[in-house]
Design goal:
The chain has one domain (3-124): Orthogonal Bundle (Arc Repressor Mutant, subunit A), CATH 1.10.10. Helices cover 66% and strands 11% of the residues. The chain is built from 6 helices and 3 strands, in the order αααβααββα. It has a 3-stranded antiparallel β-sheet with strand order 1-3-2. α3 (30-39) crosses α6 (90-124). The longest helix is centred in the C-terminal third of the chain and has 35 residues, at 90-124. The chain is globular and about 60 Å long. It starts with a helix and ends with a helix.
Length: 125
């Protein structure tokens, strides 16, 4: 059964586990977290600065979700002050490479998208 078949069989209500993971990986912050962690591990505050404009709460929630899915590893070191590093698991690296490829495609195809938008807007005017 394909991904699309599984989603259809669940009635498209979001209960399909594959659909949930896809939502986590492609979410507003999930994709940026994965792409950033491809380069290196980050401490929480470094990652927040690298991503930009994400609240502490949203970053925490997104990291916990990706950690639960097995994509992000949280390494809490028992030192004072506490130090927590985030990195990709092998599964997370795989997902991040796919997300980065999609982001690169968007970047390369943006002129075509902008032309399509202008043509669409002109037709609608």
């Amino acid at each position: 059964m394909t991904f699309v078949d599984r989603v259809r069989s669940e009635g498209g209500d979001g209960a399909c586990p594959q659909r949930l993971v896809l939502e986590h990986v492609t979410s507003r912050w999930g994709n940026l977290i994965l792409i950033a962690l491809l380069d290196r591990s980050y401490r929480f505050s470094e990652l927040r600065r690298a991503i930009g404009k994400v609240s502490e709460k949203m970053l925490t929630q997104s990291l916990q979700t990706l950690e639960r899915d097995g994509l992000v590893h949280r390494d809490a070191k028992p030192v004072i002050p506490p130090r927590v590093d985030y990195s990709l698991t092998p599964l997370g690296r795989e997902a991040a490479e796919q997300v980065r490829a999609l982001a690169q495609w968007v970047d390369e195809r943006m002129p075509a998208v902008e032309r399509a938008r202008e043509e669409y807007d002109a037709r609608r005017a």
